[in-house]
């Protein structure tokens, strides 16, 4: 059983940054707190205008500091938080130790990164903003989201043939 | 207070709040922040197609789907209750360039002249929405993460592969926005 769950974790964490590292069982109500966290995140994305197509165009033309300031300060606070969590061995609210895994380099980060960059400049959205844009009432972005899901599926289909 | 919230937030308010999502998710339950994986879990749940990449217990990662549902709700709340109708203020150079393509509407965060249902059936709209979306989904999974997973979570955890990925996101965006997009917008 241990082996099976380990393999499942290996597949889940393959090509992924965000993984459920917890070994605890989860219930529907225990998952709702992530929806609340998502609401908080979605509001910030809109209020920071990170989901605005024109802001993304400004960023890629070096015409505004705004997006660089947002990403830079987010990383600074994120890095400080991770440092403090590691240093003081802070646990989750459920009492579990917090684990963070190192990521392996793959050429996919270069090829895939460039392709995503093209898509980001075209749509003016990375995956988070796609969801937030739909929430703001731009229903046509639903099509963009479906196309992104199709793109992810196509990657899964071609994975073995692509250079990594 | 509400009046202040309704204004666009400066980067030094919004950025640190976005950064706090990293410890929030770790402390809530050992989840590492990232969003593009939700697209993969949707594939795994709805159409795994016997592909090994989608053969895993997606319910173990269902928190990510709960999270993106929240992002959508958050977008609705912010747009309907926490915003003003003031048009977006952007760099005059961009306004000038966009005017050259006939884009002049700065109401709302998503340019209505480019992103609307009828535009889906034009070459320009097809490239912007369908091809663009496809590249977002394909590229993020190939890269193993998106702006949240690599650029925020990965860099916060000092992962050098995430720095490589972030530089490539930016390089791809610079190439598209400056060299290719001007041709597409003239279509």
Write the SSE topology:
The complex is a heterodimer of chains A (about 160) and B (about 190).
Chain A: H1 2-13, H2 28-47, H3 53-60, H4 66-87, H5 108-123, H6 127-135, H7 141-158
Helix pairs in contact in A: 2-6, 6-7
Chain B: H1 2-6, H2 11-19, H3 21-29, H4 37-46, H5 62-81, H6 92-100, H7 123-143, H8 147-156, H9 160-186
Helix pairs in contact in B: 4-5, 7-9, 8-9
Characterise the protein shown here.
The complex is a heterodimer of chains A (164) and B (187). In chain A, 64% of the residues lie in helices and 0% in strands. Chain A is built from 7 helices and no strands. In chain A, helix 2 crosses helix 6 (127-135) and helix 6 (127-135) runs antiparallel to helix 7. The radius of gyration of chain A is 18 Å and the shape is globular. In chain B, helix 4 packs across helix 5 (62-81) and helix 8 (147-156) runs antiparallel to helix 9 (160-186). Chain B is globular. Chains A and B meet through helix 1, helix 2, helix 3, helix 4 and helix 5 of A and helix 2, helix 3, helix 4, helix 5 and helix 6 of B.
Structure class of chain B = mainly alpha
Q: Percent helix among the residues of chain B?
A: 55-70%
Low-confidence residue ranges of chain A = none
What kind of sheet is the major sheet of chain A? Answer: none
Order of H and E elements of chain B: HHHHHHHHH
Mean pLDDT figure of chain A = 93
Globular, elongated, flat, extended or rod-shaped: what is the shape of chain B? Answer: globular
Portion in beta strands of chain B: under 5%
Domain count of chain B: the total is 2
By DSSP (H or I, 4+ residues per run), the number of helices of chain A equals 7
Pair of chains with the largest interface and how many residues each contributes: A-B, 131 and 138 residues
End-to-end Cα distance of chain A: 30 Å
Number of helices of chain B: 9
The tally of strands of chain B reads: 0
